[in-house]
Amino acid sequence: MKIKDILNKALTTNPISDMDINNRVLVIDGTNNYKRCFSRASELSDKGYYVGGYVGFLKSMAFMIRSIAPSRVIIVFDGAGGSFRRKKLYSKYKSNRLKIRSYNREMRNDNIDESKSMEEQFKRLIMYLYKLPVTVISIDNIEADDVISYISNNFNYDNLIISSTDKDFYQLVNDKVTIYDPISKTEITTDSIIEKYNCSPNNFIYYKSLLGDTSDNITGVKGIGEKTIKSKFGFLKKYERLSIEDILNNLDDKIKDKLNNDIDIFNRNIKLMDLKSPILDINASISISNFYNELKYSYTLDSASIRKYILNDGISRSFNNFDTWISSSFSKLNYLITKK
After folding, report:
1. 8 A C-beta contact, residue 319 and residue 310
2. Rounded Cα distance, 120 and 99, in Å
């Protein structure tokens, strides 16, 4: 579904005067979106500093808000030590991320410390978010994926839109939950997942566990790739979640042997990536519930401070027609938060 269709559907279903705060919830995978913006943008401020990471994030978020017309926005970042729990299950989890890869082509030639730039820009981003009508969640030792999956599985809403390029979230899609891809600017639904992957959302965990995930350094099952899954695992299209026994019983002997040879890896991957069972403790669950249910944890719009930040950072050129940008992107959200 394209952007104009998403927006038309939102506006006709929920006029602002009738909207409740949880009618149409946009949850942004903040870590994913920030890294994407940082890697793609090499924008400089008037003072000569790289600002593309946080400027790109703010612009991308505002575009999503204008396009999707949510009733509230929740931004989730990985907490400090977020990978800790999964590393206990698999010590090599995300070990390929220890080295900072070169992001922006321009940075490669001017001796910029990308890690430091990424950290400094992230600090600026958080300052801006604290002055916007959004909820920001980051919990120590918890990854953003687990927070988002907990929100998806446990709270009341009419519609939930998860913005991320991470395909792990396809597991959560149902008649109330969709994914917004910020690159293709399309909405991903149950039908589109089945059409592309020959697999339903409820069984997408098996698709992912068979393949592994190179970005997280998770190895997959040897000898079983995307083509094999699409041709030999068509039963994963079933709506109901299957058991591992069901999967083995539906395979021919050749593919079954390959899976049995790496069954420990398959089971490990399910534990690592199953978002129907997020890796949380009771304290994290309580914290997420408080963030979601109590609007005192949401910020309100402070356009004067935002304007001051933009001027001080030397990025006015990035926000032409500032008043229009603020009003069209954030006024409705601020109204819905403050009307309570």
Report:
1. yes
2. 18
Query: What is the value of pTM for the model shown?
Result: 0.90
- Give the C-alpha separation, 68 to 47, whole Å: 34
**Extents of the domains making up the chain:** 3-190+280-334, 195-273
Give strand pairing partners of 35. Answer: none
Helix (H, G, I), strand (E, B) or coil at 25: strand
Q: What is the pLDDT of residues 6-32, one digit of tens each?
A: 555 554 555 555 679 999 999 999 999
CA separation, residue 328 to residues 13, 66, 67, 95, 323 (Å): 19, 7, 10, 42, 8
Distance CA 150, CA 152 (A): 5
The domain 3-190+280-334 is placed in CATH, from the list 3.40.630.30, 3.10.180.10, 3.40.50.1010, 3.40.50.150, at 3.40.50.1010
* Helices of type H across the chain: 3-13, 30-40, 52-68, 84-89, 114-129, 144-154, 190-197, 204-211, 226-232, 244-249, 253-261, 263-273, 282-293, 303-313, 322-338
Give the DSSP letter string of 164-199. Answer: -S-GGGGGG-SSSEEEEETTTTEEE-HHHHHHHHSS
Consecutive H or E run containing 243: none
Classify domain 195-273 at the CATH superfamily level.
Answer: 5' to 3' exonuclease, C-terminal subdomain (1.10.150.20)
DSSP 278: -
User: CA separation (Å) from 69 to 3, 4, 96, 320, 323?
Assistant: 11, 11, 37, 22, 18
- Count of other CB atoms within 10 angstroms of residue 23: 18
What CA–CA distances, in Å, run from 82 to 77, 280, 309? 9, 11, 30
- What pLDDT, in 10s, does the model give residues 69-97? 999 999 999 999 888 888 888 788 887 65
Whole-angstrom CA distances from 66 to 8, 157, 222, 301 are 11, 20, 44, 16
Amino acid found at 201: P
